[in-house]
Amino acid sequence: MTDDAYRIFGRAEPPVPPLALRAGPLTALLDGPDLRHVRLDGVELVQRVYIAVRDAPWNTIPAEYTEWQRDVGADRFSIWFRARHRHEDIDVDWVGHIQGTPDGRITYEMDGMCHGRFTYSKIGVNVHHDLPGSVGRPYRARAGDRTWTGTLPVAIEPQRVVDGTLTGMFDPYEELAIEVVPGLEAVIGLEGDLLELQDHRNWTDANLKSYGTPLALGFPFESTDGQRLRQVLTIGFRGTPVVRAAPDPAIQVGPLTGSRMPAIGLGMASDGRPLAPAEVELLRALRPDHLRVDLALRGDAWGSELDRAIGDAVAIGSALELAVLVPAPDDDAIATAAALATRVAGADVRVARVLVYPLADGFSALASTTPLDRIRLVRDALVPVIGSAVVFAGGTDQSFADINRARPDPGAMAGWCWAISPTVHAADDASIVENLAGQSEVVRFAREIVGPSSIHISPVTLATRNGPYPGGPPAPGDLPPAVDPRQLSLLGAAWTAASIGELARSGATSVTYYETAGWRGVVERAGGNPMPDRFPSRPGAAFPLYHPLADALEIRDAAVRDLIPSDPLQLGGFAVETQEGAVVVVSNLTPGPLVFDVTGLAAAAISSRVLDIRTVERATDDPIGWRHASGERIPVEGGAFSVELGPYGVVRFDTVP
């Protein structure tokens, strides 16, 4: 199964299915050491529970889990295991005990110890509250004898910095009850520490998160040798829900949203090499709208990087997206910006937009938005050579959290930009699918705070580029942390199709995905990659995610239609209306086959092309030929038809007149 597993999941073996658990009326899934989807009669009380150990730069230190014991009954369960996290000075071990009882109570206990002295940002429990059951919902919090109530905000609550430290949405608490649906409260309580609430939508994660220990106490923290760490989380409920029957899998093509498809481009290959002729052929067929090049305006290296970008952009027929990292204005910065303008003026390539960031090294949890003086410096230098119609956007080269922390005045800049990665906090397959909904949440909210300015998402990557790394810092022999093996998988393609839909429906102006070539790109280098045993791509092949991007680029600027899945954790994608008819791309976001109905297409028949394990070899070895092959004709009766897709498959439908 190894070859198929790599093609589907990006790993040598398929994931182990989660273990179904029941605690009286509650159901849950055990996914490794994590508890997921704690539900009562189909209503989600808690999305996920897990223990995290994070170092001072916020990298997650993975654990080795041993000594598993499981006692699972029809209405109860008790699970024990031991975990140990070790990296550089960090050394933490703990015993986990997860228990569910017939009265509908679940506990997750961590009882551990620190070995030695080290600095860390977090050790403890994390609870994810899904968006439908938290955003805009009434809550009740308690700390000691004090109780307070309120409504969780619909607007994305910023992660504020107070006196130099990060804080939560409100005061720390021992217990939190959220009315997830009318008449039913999900109740969590923590013994041994306090919890703090954070709006994870700031990082395009689709949840709010309760976590211990509160950051408001001041971080990073210092351990002591032999320090005991014990936290016991309890999950329960109050009230009675209306029983929800799980709907059959289906997706509905809805009305026009009022948005157009965003301009879609790619990032420059980060390996520093120009594109080879075979790579140019595939990328020219893709026809990306733009090519992002990062130019750090210090020293002389930016000049050769710009030259490479100009050459690649001309070769594949795209414009340039200049991502300019600028130091504080002084005589040297002004002179360097003038030199950049001279080089751009001599290039035979159009500039689509200019993204301006403050010059920085690596990830910062306390970053803010681009100062206006940096934008003025670059704009004053470049407008004479590229024209005033080009948008100069500011924001952050990290997550939206930085913008939300220092919200702009509406109209302060012509454009706003930020990056998206689904793996800022967690890197497992289920989490990146859950986090898709966070992308549209952020764009819609940003529309409210940036006024008439355009919105540019650049770049979208599976792994974070500069940290933090939720899979942990790389060990010797590991792939570089910015490389995600799902780049070569059907999972990557299914996720990309769903991401395009989230950003298109919410009204993003432009989106930059991945890179051109190499293991962070859309096609593999003609000569392969440096670690084929860890990233087993075929030299010169397209990755499966090439195809949803090609589908989107074939319908550039088309009118976007809504696409409504019965369950967004199962199905995603995008739909448009063109002069020739409707085009719909749907992805199976599950690790198993899925049969679902499609409704809402007014046509007698559709043409269908499926990308899954049966077709992926041809689609990646000969992507241009595969895309020109005739699709299968499917009759549409009563505006509906049924489709079966393999694990993480992607299907395109075109209406047939």
Descriptive overview:
It contains 12 helices and 37 strands. It is 19% helix and 40% strand. The chain is globular, with a radius of gyration of 25 Å. It is α+β, with helices and mostly antiparallel strands. The strands form 5 sheets. A 9-stranded antiparallel β-sheet has the order 5-6-7-8-19-15-14-10-11, with no helix packed on it. A 9-stranded mixed β-sheet has the order 35-34-37-32-31-30-20-33-36, covered by helices on one side. Helix 9 runs parallel beside helix 10 (546-554). It has 2 domains: 19-239, Beta-galactosidase, Chain A, domain 5; 258-554, TIM Barrel (Alpha-Beta Barrel), CATH 3.20.20.80. Strand 1 and strand 2 (26-31) form a beta hairpin.
Main attributes of the structure:
657 residues, Beta-galactosidase, Chain A, domain 5, TIM Barrel, 2 domains, nine-stranded mixed sheet
List the helices and strands and how they pair.
Elements: H1 2-9, E1 19-23, E2 26-31, E3 34-40, E4 43-55, E5 63-72, E6 77-87, E7 90-101, E8 105-114, E9 119-130, E10 138-143, E11 146-151, E12 161-162, E13 165-166, E14 175-181, E15 184-191, E16 196-199, E17 207-211, E18 221-222, E19 228-239, E20 250-260, E21 263-267, H2 277-286, E22 290-296, H3 301-316, E23 319-326, H4 331-345, E24 351-358, H5 372-386, E25 391-395, H6 401-405, E26 415-420, H7 429-434, H8 436-449, E27 454-460, H9 490-506, E28 510-517, E29 521-523, H10 546-554, E30 559-565, E31 571-578, E32 581-588, E33 594-599, E34 605-611, H11 616-621, H12 623-628, E35 632-635, E36 640-645, E37 650-656
Parallel strand pairs: 20-33, 21-22, 21-28, 22-23, 23-24, 24-25, 25-26, 26-27, 27-28, 28-29
Antiparallel strand pairs: 1-2, 2-3, 3-4, 4-9, 5-6, 6-7, 7-8, 8-19, 9-17, 9-18, 10-11, 10-14, 12-13, 14-15, 15-19, 16-17, 20-30, 30-31, 31-32, 32-37, 33-36, 34-35, 34-37
Helix pairs in contact: 4-5, 8-9, 9-10
